[in-house]
Amino acid sequence: MADDASTPTAFEHPIPVCPVRGSVLFPTMVMPIDAGRQVSIRAINAALDRDRTILIVSQRDRDVEEPGPNDLYDVGTACHIMRMKKNPDGSIQMLVRAVARVQVDEYTADGGVIEADVHPYEVPDGDAVLLEAAFRELKEKFSDLVEHGGRGLQAEVAQFVLNLEDPGQFADYVAYHLDFKVGDKQAVLEAASVAERLKKALVLLDTELELQETQRRLQREVKDEIDRNQREYFLREQIKALQKELSGSDDEEDEIEAFREKLEALGLPEAVMKEANRELNRMSRMHPDSAEASVIRTYLTTLTELPWSVRSEDKLDVETAAQVLDEDHYGLEKVKDRVLEYLAVRKLKSERAAKGELDPSEVRKGPILLFAGPPGVGKTSIAKSIAKAIGREYVRISLGGARDESDIRGHRRTYIGSMPGRIIQGIRQAGTKNPVFLLDEVDKLGVSFQGDPSSALLEVLDPAQNNSFVDHYLGVPFDLSEVLFIATANYVQQIPEALYDRMEPIEFASYVELEKQEIAKRYLLPRQLTENGLKPNQFTITDGALGRVISAYTREAGVRQLERTLGTLVRKAARKVADGDAKRVRLTERSLEGYLGAERFTPEAENEEDLVGVATGMYYTPVGGDILFVETSVTPGKSGFVLTGQLGDVMKESARAALTYAKANAERFGIPHETLEESEIHIHVPSGGTPKEGPSAGIALATSLISALTGVPVRRDVAMTGEVTLRGRVLPIGGLREKILGAKRAGIRHVIFPAKNQADMKDIAAPMKKALSLHDVEDLDQVLDLALVGGLAALEHKGPSGKRGPRRTKAKAAAAAAQA
Questions:
Q1: Hey, what long-range contacts does 148-156 have (CB within 8 A, 24 or more apart)?
Q2: Where does the pLDDT of residue 722 fall: very low under 50, low under 70, confident under 90, or very high at 90 and above?
Q3: b/e 402-411 (16+ beta carbons within 10 angstroms → b)
Q4: For a Cys staple, 376 with which of 54, 116, 560, 658, CB 3.0–4.6 Å?
Q5: Active site members
Q6: Given phi > 0 = left and psi -120 to 50 = alpha, else beta, which region is 606?
Q7: Are the C-beta atoms of residues 643 and 630 closer than 8 Å to each other?
Q8: Who contacts 450 (Cβ-Cβ below 8 Å, separation ≥6)?
């Protein structure tokens, strides 16, 4: 069943090759060919000079202008040139008759002409049953294609192909006339058998039929959508006409169209747009003055005012951000470092996203920070500086006293006067979807029968959920994942554990006196001068006077009271300048009392002499550190143990532990048994009106007690802090930095602290370390060796006859050296 017409048995000479692109020629076809490239024109001329036989071969890549042998397929079609015509532009038109498939043995290029040694490409019929079945199936499929339009196939051509009885020819003509890829057509040309050729053509035709069916389905869907939109449009126009008749105005129509345009311009997510259109369609069917229409109007206004896709571009210059933070705030190094780390990470992620290595949504996720510390230390103001440093909008909401879940999530629209929650309101106020959002006083949240607002915050502050936060009023998800949330709190213990777990805490320590002086000179005083109308040269205050204001007229962890006090000084100076009493005012320590009156706070000072039973301890509160005195008196009488001075339970337990330690070591310290059994021991901690709590006075209590029982005085220039155990071990405590600063202010020269607090020494400024002798201790023997006059040696002389006292320790040697 050979289908090649007049197939030569052999080709004795090389045949000129005419490359074609975008098409494949099959045997028995008579086709016109236009040749404009020189390689084709030279091949045609060479064929005309010989026996008019030419090889038509398809290019592998149609974009190659000057193809070589490597650019051509190895199977082509030998053709006979029937007619040829040269055009004025040099191109050639020729009519060829395809004679036979041929296999190229070798391509050669000589004198600009590509020639090929070929032999006939023998194609057997293959399996007869398969051939007949494939032929019938192919013919049926082709008939179906023709019935449905035939992809631009002319009726005459389609009928010609259907009339072909030769299976091989039928497959060739189907492959040629349909819009298949050149590679697919070449595969049909190269098929190893006629049955295989039919199968390849059948696969291509099946694919074409599926594509046409998909195309027809899409056309139907598009048509249905257009019809539906047109129907809705006509119905909407009729409703508008009726509403116009009822209201006599076009305002409602204009309002709905305005809403529709705004919503389409916002680029809303699909779910949000669906809800907005639903509400808009409801509104279009209502009277504009109805109550429900007013509710929908407010809802749509809220939707259109939210920044669904508006975001600020972050300033990722770490150096500039550091400069801005340093200009606005003194100290707070941990906070500044964390912000700069965030910017550095964001910058690296942006670079990776630009290279396609990271999902852009991962770049924009923001951390959730918790600034914890006492009032007035700059938690709120640093958040505003962070927004300025990274180029974002700043929003602040105060959560103090919030007791209703709807404060966070909003009210459902079924209620009269419903509105979005404060989170969504803040986002609308910012105008961008990635502001710096400050949740102030998060530890002051309340709980009521209306719900727990801290539970509602769990979704807001959870990075795994806040990309689809649903406000009850909106009823649709809003992405909060790009917001940089910063919460502030004074007492982290009051924050629910689940909420605290979602935040990254950064501790704000109390300002020390030196820091307050710098803050006052750099920020507070210039601000007060500006607010009260004075020039910088009209008011000055000496460093000594400023330090006196801080220590004697204010007592706080932050600087709020300090700023108010400075404001009082500046206003009094402004009055003098305004009255003409002075052109400029200079405040000194001596003149300070005339402006502010008597000192409000008198810090504790060291004792004037070494006393028996009086030890100096240290304490820390949110307003700073200071010293306290522990007094112990041993009097004859009924055995008893009395504690006074409003001591808390933990402090009472520390005193009892000190007494137990003293009894256990009575023989070693030379304490008579009769003294312990027949005396009343009274421990008092002034001031009696101030409650005191905590374990850190343990070693001071023990030192005072042992001093009173042995009669050995305690050194007045030594202050101490640390928890004590029954075995005399000294355990770590908190607030060491503030305690040391308080001791320095009180004139103390030696500070004893637990050895396990050595890591906290990195927070102590170098000048402070030089000004004080700091001693780390592990047990109470070391404490006594440092704190008692004469050290442990003084207790040795008190010991019973024949008993050896404790050996001299390193702490004792250090104490002796310090006394010398």
A1: 148/212, 148/216, 149/212, 151/178, 151/179, 151/208, 151/212, 152/179, 153/177, 153/178
A2: very high
A3: bebbbbbbbb
A4: 560
A5: 696, 739
A6: beta
A7: no
A8: 403, 404, 405, 406
Q: For all residues of the chain together, what is the average pLDDT? A: 83
Token pair for 306: 């939210």
User: Which of 507, 568, 554 lies closest to 378 in space, CA to CA?
Assistant: 507
Hey, CA dihedral for 260, 261, 264, 265, is it positive or negative? negative
Angle between helices 291-305 and 251-266 (to 10 degrees): 30
C-alpha dist (Å) from residue 513 to 328, 332, 565, 601, 774:
19, 15, 15, 14, 20
Cα 199 from chain centroid? 57
Q: What's the pLDDT at 706?
A: 92
CA-CA distance, 400 to 444, in Å (whole number)?
5
Q: What φ, ψ does residue 593 adopt, rounded to 5°? A: -65, -30
Read off the pLDDT of residues 120-168 as tens digits, 9 standing for 90 and up. 888 888 888 888 888 888 888 888 888 776 666 777 888 888 888 888 8
- Element containing residue 610 per DSSP (H, E): none
Smallest Cα–Cα separation from 265: which of 257, 392, 295?
257
CA angle centred on 623, ends 647 and 628, rounded to 5°: 40
Tallying the residues shown for the chain, one arrives at: 820
Whole-angstrom Cα distance, residue 94 to residue 54? 11
Residues 787, 615: Cα–Cα separation, whole Å: 8
Residue (of 517, 431, 436, 424) closest to 474 by Cα position: 424
Helix, strand, coil fractions of the chain, as percent rounded to 5? 50, 20, 35
Read off the DSSP letter of residue 27: T
Q: What does residue 4 show for φ and ψ, rounded to 5 degrees?
A: -85, 130
Of the CA atoms within 13 Å of residue 218, those in its CB half-sphere come to 6
> What sign has the CA pseudo-torsion 284, 288, 293, 299?
positive
**Do the beta carbons of residue 456 and residue 252 sit within 8 Å?**
no
Tokens of 117: 């040694």
- The string of pLDDT tens digits covering residues 225-241 is 888 878 877 777 777 66
Taking CA 453 as the corner, what is the angle to CA 447 and CA 454, rounded to the nearest 5 degrees? 95
Q: Are 248 and 254 in contact (CB under 8 A)?
A: no
Comparing C-alpha atoms, which of 324, 670, 649, 371 is closest to residue 492?
371
For 620, residues 6+ apart whose C-beta sits below 8 A from its C-beta are 696, 734, 735, 738, 739, 742
704, pLDDT greater than 90: yes
Give the CA distances from residue 786 to residues 280, 714, 753, 813, in Å, rounded to whole numbers and listed in that order: 82, 9, 11, 9
- From CA 782, how far away is CA 792, in angstroms rounded? 9
pLDDT band at 805 (very low <50, low <70, confident <90, very high): very low
Residue 810 contacts residue 778 (beta carbons within 8 Å)? no
pLDDT digits (tens, 9 = 90+) for 498-546: 888 888 888 887 777 788 888 889 888 999 999 988 888 889 989 888 8
Please state, in angstroms and rounded to a whole number, the distance separating the CA atoms of residues 188 and 186. Answer: 5
Chain-centroid distance, C-alpha 241? 51
Q: What is the pLDDT of residues 591-611, one digit of tens each?
A: 888 888 888 876 555 567 888
Higher pLDDT residue, 814 or 586?
586
* pTM for the whole structure: 0.57
* pLDDT for res 813: 39
Does residue 386 contact residue 439 with C-beta atoms inside 8 Å?
A: no
pLDDT of residue 209: 82
Task: Label residue 797 by pLDDT band (50, 70, 90).
Answer: low
A 10 A CB-CB count for 306 gives: 21
Residue 325 and residue 385 in contact, taking contact as beta carbons nearer than 8 Å:
yes
